Amino acid sequence: MFSMHFRRFRRLPFPVFALIFFAIAACIGCSKHYLELDKLKKDEIWDPTWAVPLAHSIITSYDILDRFDDDSLIVIDPITGLLALRYSSEVFSVSAEEFIVIPSQNNPAIPVPMGPTTINDVETNGSATITIGDTLPITTGGEKLETITFKDSTRFEYSLFSDVDYAGTLTVSIPDLKDAGGASYSSTVPFTVNESNVGIDKLDLLDGYTWDLTMGGTTTDSFAIFFSITYINGPGTAAPTDILTIDMDLNGVEFRNLTGDIGSPFISTGIDSVRLRIYENATQGQIRYSAPKLIAVFTNTFGAALEITPAVFKASSPVNGATALQDLGSGLGEGVSTQIIASPSMGVPGITTITMDSTNSNLNALLQLSPERIVYDVDVQANPGGGTNSNFVMDTSKLKLDVIAELPLDGWAKGFTKSDTVVYGIPNDSAVSDSTAKELVALTVRLNIDNGFPTDGKVQVYFADSNNTVVDSLFGSGMEFVFLGGIADGTGRVVTHTLKTTDMVIPREKLIALRDSGADRIIVVGEVQTTDAQTGKFVKIFEDYTMELWLGIKAEFEIRMDTRI
């Protein structure tokens, strides 16, 4: 209820009071040259009164609720027209890069000595080729990787150092590292006679390459690599102890996707909060919905089952405090572990939906706070059951929690207060002189509201200076009711409108005092409650409800003719 009732209550007073103060400024600023005073009798007091209608408006349910997006207001009963608010917000998300980090790979240097056989073959045949292979591991953070497809930041770098007196070529081959077309990685670099150990560096970007790390399905985190070195005879003379050294690194590792067993990594979101826009600017009050729902939708695009445990999950209000979400059968609550299903295949999310209502959670207690924020600190663990798992992760994988609140406007609300400040600026120049202001006896602003909503509303207006120091108020006796709720039948539907007339009298002395005090803004404080909310009576808001408003102003003057000639 609150969300509907208070938006328009916030919207209506400010244009109304803006009009009031424009009219006040105009009346105070009336100058004598507008009157043909030489044609009036002297030594008489005239008491003219001006009455001017300022505004007439009919407000509907949709006008009052226009603070929300179009898809936030829904009709949940097309036959009766009962309204509800639906509001959604993303609470948190956990990305792939937070879960899986593949470190750079720095492998030990591989020395390849010449040996007498190779020297003999070069000198006999003019060239010789040495081929050696090795099986190397991939270092991970505990994952057992089967395949990994790289992004463009991944760099395979190797360096060659030689003190061999022959020139030649080095070819590096990794059969199970293949590009998008299926061709295995192979890279060849030439080297020259090198008597001073000057190195040759080679860098290849592995964007789109996929690496099979299973060695033919027999293991994980491993790969075979082959080096083919061809020496060409030259003028120099090599020695059997001469060495060619190969140094390899894999840097800037980022993946497009990977498969294998990612283990059971554990991360925490850390303490954070998300704002609930439907309750912003509410300073106090209580609310009760007859049948509220809070739907938690977990979207998981990790190819792994997840478990979330909210260490903190509270609805929080700066005025009304904080209350933790309790699991009374819903499966979600502070300190409760909840299982999140895995994505069945790449690009297809796994959806886990939990619906909370007044029967399986303490949702009503949370909503009665009029919470401005959800405060959370959530622990997330993959593969909570341990064991051996077949997982996949994409660079776009994430776990996301969206919360959808569906609030039928059927219930009660009381004591809700909203406030805002409007700068209006009473003129303080020669047009508003003391002598001119004395002509004005009083301003009376009349507000008629014919209310077809089941809500009562009252208001107080404070006048303040530029430091927001209050110098006066419109109503001396406290907050004033400006509309009263329509009369509802036994089903909670309003069947009779209620008309309320409010006269706001501002005497001349107050206007002058406001001008002299430097008041340049008003602070409007409004309070609304549904009809008979103190007794716990439920009311309903239907789409055909209306409120009609008339605003007029009356200015009373006293003009002494002998002082004006």
List keywords for this structure.
8-stranded antiparallel sheet, 8 helices, 11% helix, Jelly Rolls
Provide the fold topology.
Layout: H1 2-11, H2 13-28, E1 45-46, E2 49-60, H3 61-64, E3 73-77, E4 82-95, H4 96-99, E5 105-106, E6 110-113, H5 115-125, E7 127-137, E8 144-150, E9 155-162, E10 167-178, E11 184-191, E12 200-205, E13 210-212, E14 222-232, E15 243-251, E16 255-261, E17 266-268, E18 272-275, E19 282-289, E20 293-300, E21 306-317, E22 321-324, E23 338-340, E24 350-356, H6 363-367, E25 373-382, E26 391-394, E27 398-408, E28 410-423, H7 434-437, E29 440-451, E30 455-464, E31 470-473, E32 480-483, E33 487-488, E34 494-496, E35 498-507, H8 508-517, E36 521-530, E37 539-540, E38 546-557, E39 559-560
Antiparallel strand pairs: 1-39, 2-38, 3-4, 4-27, 5-15, 6-15, 7-14, 8-13, 8-16, 9-12, 9-15, 10-11, 10-13, 10-14, 16-26, 17-25, 18-25, 19-28, 20-24, 20-27, 21-22, 21-23, 21-25, 28-36, 28-37, 29-35, 29-38, 30-31, 30-32, 30-36, 33-34
Percent of residues in helices: 10-25%
Number of helices in the DSSP assignment: 8
**Regions with pLDDT < 50 over 5+ consecutive residues?**
1-46
What composes the largest sheet? 8 strands, antiparallel
What is the domain total for the residues?
3
Quickly give the structural class. mainly beta
Report the portion of residues in β strands: over 45%
Specify the overall morphology.
Answer: elongated
Q: For the CA atoms, what is the radius of gyration?
A: 40 Å
Mean pLDDT, rounded to whole units?
A: 82
